[in-house]
Amino acid sequence: MGCLEILIAFSMHLGMNGDYNAVHPHARCTVDDTIFGVYYNSLNDLSLYAAKEIKFGYSWDQRIELGFVSGYSSSTVTPIVRYKIENFFISPSYETINGENNYGLVVGFEFKL
To answer: What is each CA distance from 28 to 21, 60, 83, 86, 98, in whole angstroms?
Structure first.
């Protein structure tokens, strides 16, 4: 059996000033607690990522994903942290507009196709 999953996520960018894409088609492979994949990001570009999943919780499917992602800034990779409960997620975010940094949250819902 293969590890490939095809997903789609819908997101909102809270506290952010930019105009961001909210629909994210996504292909992912999970092996044990390591995940890697590619998705159409908020900047209308492709992002590659690799992360570790830390699962916890007894009554809900909860996990934290810690890793690195490409496609968001002038640097080649950016750290990423995402907290998930079932299919809902929340992640800290930042943007730089006109030389000023702004911090916010990305919240969303992701499901397998």
So the answer is: 19, 22, 17, 16, 34
81 closest CA partner among 67, 97, 94, 69: 67
φ, ψ for residue 61, nearest 5 deg: -80, 100
Q: Do residues 43 and 23 lie in contact, with contact meaning Cβ atoms separated by under 8 Å?
A: no
* One-letter amino acid of 107: V
Segment 50-89, tens digit of pLDDT: 999 999 877 778 999 999 999 987 667 999 999 999 999 9
3-state DSSP helix/strand/coil % of the chain, to nearest 5: 0, 70, 30
Which tokens belong to 72?
A: 């968001």
Residue 113 near residue 7 (C-beta atoms within 8 A)? yes
pLDDT of residue 1: 55
